[in-house]
Amino acid sequence: MVTNDTASAVLAEPTQTYDVVGGGGVRLHAAEWGNRRGRPILFLHGWSASHVCWAHQLEGPLAEDFRLVAFDNRGHGMSEKPLDPDSYRDSQMWADDLAAVIDQLGLDRPVLVAWSYGGFIVSDYIRAYGEDRVGAVNLVGAAVMMKPPTFDHIGPDFLANAPEASQPDLATNIAAIRRFLDVCTAEPLSPDDWSAALAWNMVVPPAVRGALISREIDSDDVLARMSLPVLVTHGRSDTIVLPSMSEHVLDVCRTARPSWYDGVGHMPFSEDQARFDRELTDLAGAVS
User: Fold this and answer.
1) Where is each AB hydrolase-1 domain found (predicted)?
2) 5 falls within a domain
3) Residues with Cβ within 8 Å of residue 7, at least 6 apart in sequence
């Protein structure tokens, strides 16, 4: 079983919280922990998640040296949840959200840590705003393309559960999210972490989940021209976003380097926190 003794599933109170005005005026919830004088690290969560997924990082050893910032994507967590599908299909909206967090919190060349769907958001941002305001990128089980109906490199355990998780019937989408959580990791999460994950998933309206997966995305144009350091972190046993997604990133992005986790699924930051935090420390420490 995946266990972690450095943080509880209930995230401690942040040192500061923010209401950020994102794309189209959508209100975004952001918060920070750690050393305000340190290099900023900005965490982006995935599909149907929230900033709470990073609890072990936000309260762990990273907090001694770095300014740790996390926010809830539009439609998630404590952020505003418009139900119009067009609020989630426009790449510029996502780019504007990330730009707003960086600008309104005054983050100086943060390291962007993008899990799963967060890979799309980082690509949206760099396409629209360039990479000058960013120090480095850590793609964590990250998706960079979504091409229905084939869904190249998206795993069978996502495709099997996401449609029912997007249905309005409560019993149907609860059952789908429970199945989804059971296959997110190679070994079961601790009971506290699993129940916290169920809770943050259920805060997301099913219509929002469905709108997120209705986009068609190809980030090769961004990856091919990136000059930033890019750490590609991926579990070899990931069945949500397949390892072949990261192999594709490594083929296209000349500055990317891999970090493969054997016996780990879609949540390496929880499944092997010590290694994940160590490698993130090295990446952030190398930013000039």
Assistant:
1) 40-271
2) no
3) 55, 56, 58, 59, 60
Segment 176-235, tens digit of pLDDT: 999 999 999 999 999 999 999 999 999 999 999 999 999 999 999 999 999 999 999 999
Q: What is the pLDDT of residue 11?
A: 80
**Residue 20 in contact with residue 30, Cβ under 8 Å?**
yes
**Average model confidence (pLDDT) across the chain:** 95
- Residue 114's contacts (CB-CB under 8 Å, 6 or more residues apart) are 44, 121, 122, 137, 138, 139, 140, 142
| Dist. CA 29–CA 14, nearest whole Å | 12
Q: Count structural domains, the chain.
A: 1
Share of the chain above pLDDT 90, in %: 94
Query: Is the C-alpha dihedral spanning 103, 15, 6, 9 positive or negative?
Result: negative
Strand partners, 231: 138, 257
Q: Is residue 90 part of a domain?
A: yes
Would the CA dihedral through 60, 80, 216, 200 be positive or negative? positive
Sign, CA torsion 179/180/181/183:
positive
pLDDT at 135: 98
Q: How far apart are CA 79 and CA 98, in angstroms?
A: 13
* pLDDT higher than threshold 60 for residue 7: no
Predicted pLDDT at 9? 52
CATH code assigned at 233 = 3.40.50.1820
